[in-house]
Design brief:
By secondary structure, this protein is mainly beta. It has 1 helix and 13 strands. Residues 144-152 have low confidence and may be disordered.
Length: 152
């Protein structure tokens, strides 16, 4: 049986009404499910993108029509999720990863923690499972609010 990576612990801030999906989003059990808002529809976060939350879904491919389907999204900044990594690591290396920040990389529809790269610093590693070769992460980014000119 395939493992379904997902939330390990922490609070839920669930957009239970769902968010509209971009066309043909491919969700895999052995993948992260961080999502990004792309002009009003949500797609699976790719390298260089800032995630908004974690989709609470199983394995499937969304409709070929944008906005035809919605998925629940957990936007909690304190929730911790398990996801695969892009490179093998040892127990000793895993211990060094805890507290570090890393990026997301998506390859062949599999979203992974890019444990060797911290250009965007969007995930913070808070734990790991060396046997499963997964890390436990939470969102490290804080969405900034920019005031319009003239507003104090």
């Amino acid at each position: 049986m395939d493992m379904n990576y997902g939330k390990k612990y922490g609070p839920d801030v669930l957009l239970s009404q769902g968010v509209p999906l971009a066309a043909s989003q491919v969700f895999k059990y052995k993948s992260g499910k961080f999502m990004t808002n792309a002009a009003g529809v949500f797609n699976i976060t790719a390298t260089g993108e800032i995630p908004f939350g974690w989709a609470s879904v199983g394995e499937y491919t969304s409709s070929a029509v944008a906005s035809a389907e919605k998925v629940p999204l957990n936007i909690s900044r304190e929730a911790v999720y398990e996801m695969p990594v892009d490179a093998a690591f040892t127990e000793a290396e895993g211990l060094l990863l805890v507290g570090d920040v890393c990026d997301i990389v998506t390859t062949d529809n599999i979203q992974m923690a890019d444990i060797g790269t911290s250009t965007d610093d969007i995930l913070q590693i808070v734990g790991f499972d060396v046997d499963a070769q997964t890390v436990y992460v939470r969102l490290a980014v804080r969405l900034g609010i920019t005031a319009e000119a003239g507003v104090i």
